[in-house]
Here is the input.
Amino acid sequence: MLFAIVGDNKKAKPSKGMRAVCPACHKPVIAKCGSILIHHWSHLSGSDCSGKEPMTQWHYSWQEFFASEHREVVICNGIIRQRADLCLPQPNGSKLIVEFQCSSISVEEISKREQFYTQFGHLLWVFDARDFCIKLELVSPNSNIYKFIWSPPRKSLWVINSALAFDIGNHILLIASGHQRNGRRKLCGGWGWLMRKKEFVYLLPQFTEQFTFDNSKPLWLPPKSRPLKTSRWRSKQSN
Ligand SMILES: [Zn+2]
Here is the structure.
């Protein structure tokens, strides 16, 4: 993680020899200030803290876009303390919680985090999809709406029922609706909005103003179900 707590509850980046505690579990963490990885804080071995998950360069590069007060925010419901990658206040008073995910993550862990974070606001997953096999096809000129085919899909992500975006390099695909694989002939796919990374970054502080979604519809339609007539998502910016 990039920030730990020093002294009087102050968030601090690591520097050599500095002492701090983890904002989630309050146990001591060590400043790692080597020459290869971005300087970060690390738990002692044997820790079972939820903030222990190793972070990659990809992770850090995303966080750098946002103010430090919104990064690595500890969210607590009185029992569980979980460290969210980003927690952005929205104009309507709600919160957008963003989880950047590059390592593979279990279905159980996805469900656990969805259940937890949606008590506090909207949850958006951003997956490192640079290795995913995704084919895009523009739906109509002068729009940013694309159909996509994802084959082979990472099936564990079908359990996601909050907002989901794929980082496919310089662009982000925000998934509007998807269908799980339906037999051999119909591959996993769907449609979404494609935007440049910078646009996406600017969008996040007002995400709930730009997009609304209907919770009663699943993000990923199960096999053999007919496509929905109306999508789960609506964008206020275009069409
Ligand atoms: Zn911890």
